[in-house]
Amino acid sequence: MAQGTTVPKLNFEYWLDKAIEWGQATTLESQKDVCLHLCQLQEFLHQVYETLKHMDSIVAIQQFPLIGQLLGRLCWNPFVTGCEESQKTLMWCLCCLYSSEPQSPVELKANSWVRSLLCHLLSSSNWGSNEAETSTFISTLGYTSVDYYCHLVKNLVFSLVAELRGNQFNGLNIQGRVSASHVNAVSLFCYPLVTLPDLTPLLETLLLYHGGASKEILSSEFLEAVNEAFLKKKISLSESAVFSLWLRHLPSLEKATLHLLDQLVSIQLKTLEEVACVIKDSLLPQAASHPAICRIVNEIFKNALLETDGAPEVMTIIQVFTQLFLQALQNENRQHKFPLKAYFPYHHQPLVTALLRRPVELPSTHWSQHLKHISDMLKALVEDKNISSLTDLFEIWFLVARFGEWLDIAAEQLLKAAVEPDALLWLLAFYYCPQNETQQRTQTMVEAQAVYSHLMMLFSCTDLSVKELEAAVPSITDTEQCCNQHLITHLLTNFLLFSSGGHMIAQEFIYHIYETTDTSKEVCSLLIRTAYRINHNGGESQMIVKLLNEILQKLTLKV
């Protein structure tokens, strides 16, 4: 056929005859003929793609019954696929023939056929088997086989990214609306290849793509594979791509949150700096700047607390997460995207606002007043007759518990500052004993007041023995009063750290608590939190810092 012959549009019969004639271009004559017709073939394939991308795959096959034979033969012709443009367009056409929701054996078989051809086109090992046939073409381009296929993949990725972003590529107008089935097919095409570094731009473009469909258009297999690769640090994605992944695929967000909890609980981290580093690296606190993600993560944290019976290490993780979330939220709020109520829709907003106020934002001389304000609001809420169910009570408790830094400061202020103790003691009593159906919290409050009075009488003693302290707080070893025991442990630990006489017996007495009560994890968590706060906020003597480090080092060895 002469070079100038005009080829009718979408003339599948003509091009199928040519493909059969060429075979796999094993003769010099067939190779020359492919090269003579390559520009016309590329134009034809572009026209086919522009037609297919707006059609359902089944309709396309019914309307063009020869398309399968033609594409199959062209994919195995190295002088056709050796051209990057032809290779790229063949892949686009194949993706259009992939059925996102196969309903029949015919569609399943067609999907399998499309996958095998895509794998053939992308697999260098398959191409390697035909090296004798392709090496001549590749060498004329100035590439080695490895370099050539690397460039081919990069160009394919670039063209798909350009298509999804609605840009121009090589003069070809591909700005038209891309069908949901086509995008789904592209995501399935990426599914087995998500860990390839060259594919990352396409992964991010897909994750950020929103075509206006009423339901998710990316395949769940693709979303799960990307999330799994990200969690295992096999790929690196931008924050916006990760956030979009979790927003559009709830199972991935749930898995990421549980993965973070498992990671932190399974490895014994010695400092909150290490905990904070792992949490921040997960991108979950930053992602929680979106209210939908924030609420889902909170629900997972609630369930984790319930399933672990309020394990101190889990509570500490949640509290550190909350601090990092607040930092991210402050940065996000510069753009004023979401109101505060979007994050805490069912809570008393003045209480939320007070808890959100970080201690470093207030002078330390105002801490006691701020804590009294929190305690008064909380008490009014809890004693409101409308708060009747345990679920409502738990929601209020969880809100307060997330902001554990204020609770730790309340325990310190009771011993270090001139305060009216009842409001701060009630705040701690509520945290350690939120239910009061049988007067548990009331009894906890009475016993805590008694212990607090004894501790304050001993606070100025410079010469204090372990026996004297044990006599003042005998209930510390009463394991039947669990809530009372945890609260008294909290007060007592702070007394040992911040009183003059407590320093001398701190290590001995804390080891005694650690070994004779069931509050060992509570003590460790409290000491770690105190060390973290002092290191970040300062204001304490080096003696306390040194004492904390020594105790924590020995307790870690005991664990």
From TrEMBL:
<dbReference type="GO" id="GO:0034599">
    <property type="term" value="P:cellular response to oxidative stress"/>
</dbReference>
<dbReference type="InterPro" id="IPR000686">
    <property type="entry name" value="FANCC"/>
</dbReference>
<protein>
    <submittedName>
        <fullName>FANCC protein</fullName>
    </submittedName>
</protein>
<dbReference type="GO" id="GO:0036297">
    <property type="term" value="P:interstrand cross-link repair"/>
</dbReference>
<dbReference type="GO" id="GO:0006289">
    <property type="term" value="P:nucleotide-excision repair"/>
</dbReference>
<dbReference type="Pfam" id="PF02106">
    <property type="entry name" value="Fanconi_C"/>
</dbReference>
<dbReference type="GO" id="GO:0043240">
    <property type="term" value="C:Fanconi anaemia nuclear complex"/>
</dbReference>
